[in-house]
Amino acid sequence: MSKAVAVEAVGMTMRFGAFTALDDVSIKVPAGTFHALLGENGAGKSTLVKCMMGFYTPTEGQMVVDGKEAVIASPKDADRLGLGMVYQHFTLVPSLTGAENLVISREDAPKVIDWRWERRQLADFMETMPFKIPLDQPVSALAAGEKQKLEIVKQLYLGRRFIVLDEPTSVLTPNEAEEMLGLVRGMTKRGDLTVLMISHKFHEVTAFCDDVTVLRKGKRTGSGRIADLDRKTMAAMMIGDQPIATLDSRAATPAEAKPVLTVTALKAKDRTGLKSIEVDGLSVRAGEIVGIAGISGNGQKEFLEVLAGQRIREGGEIRVKAAPYASTREQSRNLNVRFIPEEPLRNACAPKMTVAENISFRTFDLGRNGKPAAWVSARAIRAYAAKLIEQFKVKTASLSSPIQSLSGGNVQRAVLARELTGDVDLLIVSNPCFGLDFAAVAEIRARIMKARNGGAAVLLMSEDLDELMELSDRILVMSDGALVYETPIATADVHVIGEHMAGHH
Amino acid sequence: MENDIGLWGVPLAILGGAIRVSTPFIFVSLGEAVTERSGRINLGLEGTLVFGAMAAYAIAVETGSPWAGVLAAMVAGAGFGLLHGWICSFPRVNDIAVGIALMLFGIGIAFFFGKPYIQPSAPNLPAIPLGDWSSLPQVRAALNVNVLFLLGAVLAVALWWAFKNTKIGLIVRVVGDSADSARAMGLSPTAVRLFATAFGGALAAIGGAYLSLYYPGSWNERISSGQGLMAVALVIFARWNPLGCFAAAMLFGGAGALGPALQSVGVTQGYYLFYAAPYILTLLIMIATSSPGRQLAGAPGELSITK
Q1: What is the pLDDT of residue B1?
Q2: Distances (CA, A) of A48 to A9, A20, A24, A54, A312
Q3: MF terms per GO, please (chain A) (predicted)?
Q4: Are A287 and A474 in contact (CB under 8 A)?
Q5: For the purposes of burial, counting CB atoms within 10 Å of the CB of B37, is it exposed (0-12), middle (13-18) or buried (19 or more)?
Q6: Out of A109, A112, A269, whose CB is closest to B293?
Q7: Distance between CA atoms of A189 and B286, rounded to whole angstroms?
Q8: Superfamily of domain A7-239, CATH level 4
Q9: What is the pLDDT of residue B295?
Q10: Residue ranges of A 273-302 with Cβ closer than 8 A to chain B
Q11: From edge to edge, which strands make up the β-sheet containing A194-199?
């Protein structure tokens, strides 16, 4: 096997019109090292990587590969120099087998494929790999971790000796992530491979990487050996000196707190229609956060859709404060049930309607006395929205901007403003911080904690285990459409939870 | 009578009928299988089939060669496929709507150009008498196999092999299953689909040529009885597998021969009902193999009906 490649980018600058996405950033990745690239969303990580791989032509800047200046004008040039990239979203073809995926991705794939010969070649090649993956199964039958490994194997099979991993563990369980990163680490140590990993998970970076480069707002704000830096320093490099909301301390849940949400023997079809989800014996009490962990696609989304009234229930019972709950507007209003769904722009907003209108969805048809009103008052809507925007610090150009023109964090703030105002007895939340920056994440988590301390029962579904560990009072694991494990937070162990998520029990 | 084979005539007639009637189904469904495997549906194949039948007949009349007619049909069919593929390459164009438009266009334009060719008679495509060993006329009739049927059988195996063992086959499957992956590999999904649709059109037109040049063997405006549309259903039934397409085409051909076969052994009542057998079979198969909530196994991921 050929040897790892050293890659250096010098003075990379990328301007899109008047906007400078990348400002004079240099990064040096010596051969056989595992380098982390840290930064918030929009800090310029992907722009930098795309400039290095030839997807963008940088306004200024140079590439040095193995000590020699290199011109990388297109991804093809990057290929030739042995530079490759593994995307966050898989690029394997689901219905093809692993072997077919590997062979067809080769530039020089023969017109007629001699499978006997190719299989032998692949077997020989896999001997040199630390990964063991079944190559004769369609990729769609592989677990997420196996797909991720196959993506990396594909890069190596294509002769790449410097690879960029773009948030490679975002779809993996903690155990899968550790195994995969450990194997990659081994390959860099042996000098077979150089890796640049985009990440925002500090624990992965500190456990597996050699060096780190941190970006903020298109500038390099720090770099160095991981061994010399602690998390606090790295976090400061990432977010600068902006104020970060702190989590309220957890008020004890009163012992006599009544269950607000109870779910018994709930059944519904999942999105493929082939399987059902069955949720039984879930109860959330007032003043506690119950977290539901699970790898995406194990029925959490369907469960939430049933609770929100977006999916038909086939059987079972949902009760809120002992009253049967069928997700009508009337019931959610009377029982004070509120939702913060994932992808708020899609699931909780009418994207083209104004910020003010979106904020008043829960109240626009109520008169001053709280009774249904026949006439909608635009003035009352604007006054109400203006008050909430002020209170929740939603950044918007005006009250009448369409809500889709807001940034992700501000859409989520607007939804929070709507859902958390007034009496909240039950709050159902799903992946509330997905794709948001540090400050917004901290603020949203603080608001959820505040609602809990205010006596609301909170059901929190999240694919981010760290988030669940931080917020929950109890954690349940959903796997294959059913709740399979429960633990109070005091005894929660990420690895045990991960094993249940993967269905290894 | 020594030639009377009694009720044995029914299965024999069904076999013979299956071979005779299935050929257009084989070609149209193989063509549609290739197009759909690339991630696009061409519902216009009925129009391509009718136009192919007309083009083949006209050219055969003019040149005196049925093979020139088949070739002309293929060129015309590829043209229809290219037109479909080209229109669908624009953003936000729905391939199903375009297919329906092209179906009506193909039928209409075939009638327009075909008027002068209803009267003259064209030379037929040759058949190979595989039943010469038998003294029974029924056996001889049933095993009088057209060359195109044999070509269709060979083509089904060839396509099945090519989807697994050739670069082009894998590329078509990649494009049909994940356009993003294809782009990441540097392939152009639009170009691949354009050629896959053209190929499918050419094959569908051969099916039409068979209709006008062999069985029933004349050109008129009622030449097709919906083979082009039913073949689309066949492809789904066959799970996009060329060998499955061949088997399904034989099944449909056999069902289509049920009516005439019963008639030939003297069933005089209700045999019209059996003429409807292929259509009823289509309905039953679609009901049996579909479900409101789940995706079809083996469906190409980029197909607009399964997405």
Answers
A1: 43
A2: 9, 12, 10, 10, 45
A3: ATP binding
A4: no
A5: buried
A6: A269
A7: 57
A8: P-loop containing nucleotide triphosphate hydrolases (3.40.50.300)
A9: 56
A10: 273-274
A11: A83-86, A162-166, A194-199, A34-38, A211-216, A219-225
Instruction: Tell which A residues from 79 to 108 touch B, by Cβ distance under 8 Å.
Output: 87, 89, 91-96, 100, 103-105
**Chain B positions in Cβ-Cβ contact with residue A109 (cut-off 8 Å):** 167, 170
What percent of chain B stands above pLDDT 70? 95
Fold that domain A257-336+424-435+451-505 belongs to in CATH? Rossmann fold (3.40.50)
DSSP calls for A430-499: ESTTTT--HHHHHHHHHHHHHHHHTT-EEEEE-S-HHHHHHH-SEEEEEETTEEEEEEEGGG--HHHHHH
Please give the share of chain B, as a percent, with pLDDT higher than 90: 53
What's the whole-number mean pLDDT along residues A87-105?
88
Quick check: B301 and A95 CB within 8 A?
Answer: yes
Q: Helices marked H in A17-97 — which ranges?
A: 45-53, 75-80
Q: What is the largest CA-CA distance in chain A?
A: 80
Contacts of B185 in chain A (CB under 8 A): 91, 104-105
Contacts of A75 in chain B (CB under 8 A): 186
Residue B2 above 60 pLDDT?
no
Q: How far apart are CA A358 and CA A351, in angstroms?
A: 8
Whether residues A112 and B186 touch (CB distance < 8 A) is answered with no
State the Cα–Cα distance between residues A212 and A201, nearest whole angstrom: 12
Structure-model confidence comparison of residues A472 and B302, the more confident one:
A472
For A54-114, where are the alpha helices, taking DSSP H only?
75-80, 98-105
- pLDDT (tens digit per residue) in A466-493: 899 999 999 999 998 899 999 999 999 9
Interface test with A, best of B38, B163, B165, B170 (most A CBs within 10 A): B170
State the best of A87, A88, A95, A117 to mutate against chain B, taking most chain B CBs within 10 Å: A95
Both tokens of B173, joined, read 């499957």
Distance of residue B162 Cα from the nearest chain A Cα, in angstroms: 8
Q: Quick check: B177 contacting A, CB < 8 Å?
A: yes
Under a CB-based contact definition with an 8 Å cutoff, are residues B305 and B96 in contact? Answer: yes
Minimal CA separation from A384 to chain B, in Å: 40
Per-residue burial over A341-375, b if 16 or more Cβ lie within 10 Å, else e, is bbebbebbbeeeebbbbbbbbebbeeeeeeeeeee
Q: Judge: B173–A93 Cβ closer than 8 Å, yes or no.
A: yes
Q: Does B297 touch chain A (CB under 8 A)?
A: no
pLDDT at A212: 95
* pLDDT: which is higher, A399 or A244: A399
A139 three-state secondary structure: helix
d(CA A479, CA A388): 38
- The reply to whether residue A104 touches residue B168, judged by beta carbons under 8 angstroms, is no
Residue for token digits 């089904």?
A: B156
| Higher-pLDDT residue of A409, A165 | A165
Which CATH code is given to the segment(s) B6-288?
1.10.3470
ipTM of the complex in this document: 0.85
Record: contact B166-A115, CB cut-off 8 A? no
With beta carbons under 8 A apart, name residues in chain A contacting B300: 95
Report pTM: 0.77
> What are the extents of the domains in chain A?
7-239, 257-336+424-435+451-505, 343-422
Max CA separation in chain B (angstroms):
71
Does the distance separating the beta carbons of A93 and B181 come in below 8 Å? yes
Q: How far apart are CA A435 and CA A407, in angstroms?
A: 11
Work out the minimum CA distance from A11 to partner chain B, whole angstroms. Answer: 28
Please state whether beta strands A426-430 and A337-340 pair in parallel, antiparallel, or not at all (unpaired). Answer: parallel
In the three-class reduction of DSSP (H, G, I as helix; E, B as strand; rest coil), residue A314 is classed as coil
Enumerate the residues of chain A whose CB falls inside 8 A of the CB of residue B182.
Answer: 93
* Interchain proximity B177–A96, CB inside 8 Å: yes
